[in-house]
Amino acid sequence: MANEDVIFGRGPVMEALKSGHAIDKLIVKRGAYNGSIVPIIEMAKKNGIIVQQADQQKLDKLAEGGNHQGVAAMVSAYEYSTVKDILKRGEAAGRKPFVVICDKITDPHNLGAILRTANCVGADGVIIPKRQSAGINSVVVKTSAGAAEYTPVAKVTNIANTIDELKEAGLWITAADMDGQSMYDIDLNGAIGLVIGSEGSGISRLVREKCDFIASIPMMGEINSLNASVAAGILMYEALRQRGGFGK
């Protein structure tokens, strides 16, 4: 289900970029860039696609002996869900929707861990952006410990617009951020969407403005921040506690 397809060669990769093909990551040969590889890298970055450098051996392995010309595109074969289908899961189960929204989580290990916890707390699904985000690949699937097989993921064009749609559907949106009010003082018992920001910059400004609540996690030590997937797990389990998920 979640294997990765590889497109390699400058011509094929450029055509994939032009057509808007869903590319999770671009891998280019390490070194100085010139010629036709330059517009490929520029277009990938413009589209928010992660660009990584690699040595010749890694590219040779990815292309399985084919002529990669110093570039390969990783394309997820994962079958994504839709936001509507995620909301229908909660309705079908007779419960209020519980959705996790990832705002530009780029580390596949973090996304996999979030998926794993989302499944454990019974979330109806996870929403990620099409650009500047890790997609569902083999690393995510492995880190999720199989959760990617059961918890649907929707990939959307615009997280802020999607939040508007969720609010119209009756969800209250709460984001995790250290500048908010204590998560223990926020009602997470109803139809909710929990927003987790990126590893480096947190929640984007526009997404933050769309949220109904900003939830902070108590910090008692010298360090005042948590890994994105850890913060997500803590907030999800507080939601589960409030929703009466313990002791059942």
Provide a compact summary of the structure.
This protein is an alpha/beta fold and 248 residues long.
Question: Can you describe what's shown?
Answer:
- The chain is of the alpha/beta class.
- It is 35% helix and 22% strand.
- The chain has helices at residues 10-18, 37-46, 56-63, 83-92, 108-120, 138-143, 159-168, 205-210, 228-242; strands spanning 4-8, 25-29, 50-54, 71-76, 98-102, 125-129, 153-156, 172-182, 192-196, 213-216.
- Strands 7-6-5-9-8-10 form a six-stranded parallel sheet, sandwiched between helices. A four-stranded mixed sheet has the order 1-4-2-3.
- α6 links the parallel β6 and β7 (153-156).
- α1 packs parallel to α2 and α5 packs parallel to α9.
- The protein is elongated and about 55 Å long.
- 40% of the residues are buried.
Protein traits:
10 strands, six-stranded parallel beta sheet, 248 residues, 9 helices, alpha/beta, 22% strand, four-stranded mixed beta sheet
Number of strands: 10
Give a short account of the largest sheet: 6 strands, parallel
Q: Uncertain segments of ≥5 residues (pLDDT<50)?
A: none
Radius of gyration: 19 Å
**What multimeric state do the chains show?**
single chain
**How are helices and strands ordered from N to C?**
EHEHEHEHEHEHEHEEHEH
Main sheet: which strands, in order across? 7-6-5-9-8-10
What fraction of residues sit in β-strands? 15-25%
Tell me the distance between the termini.
Answer: 32 Å
What is the approximate shape? Answer: elongated
Helix content: 25-40%
The SS-based structural class is alpha/beta
Overall mean confidence score, pLDDT? 89
Number of helical stretches of at least 4 residues: 9
